[in-house]
Amino acid sequence: MSGEIYDEAGRPKPTEVRLKKAEKTLAVSFEDGHSFQFPAELLRVESPSAEVQGHGASQKQTVAGRRHVGIMGLEPVGNYAVRISFDDLHDTGLFSWAYLYELGLNQETIWEAYLDNLAKAGLSRDP
Questions:
Q1: Residue 13 phi/psi, 5° resolution?
Q2: What gap in Å lies between CA 35 and CA 42, rounded to an integer?
Q3: How many CB atoms lie within 10 A of CB 42?
């Protein structure tokens, strides 16, 4: 992969990041033509923070009760990521463009796995 639409690691660069507070979504478009709409709930429960992901795959937490979570704001982090501040006061995950791209490509599978994990744990999306 080469060309100006990719970063030095060969990943597509974002062209637009739009927070839609009323809809509780984040829209991200990439230079390769992919565009993704991320519900705030998905971003919150899949936050790349250590609090959610742990320090290894076996430590990942299933975060319940976030059906109504919203996004308060975005803060750019260099040219590679964005920090998302959620209205439940979680703001420790750095969402790299690569992470958001992969999350977008696999959004349906990731969401289904999240719902399965909630059910297995007897947890709910509701607070």
A1: -90, 145
A2: 16
A3: 19
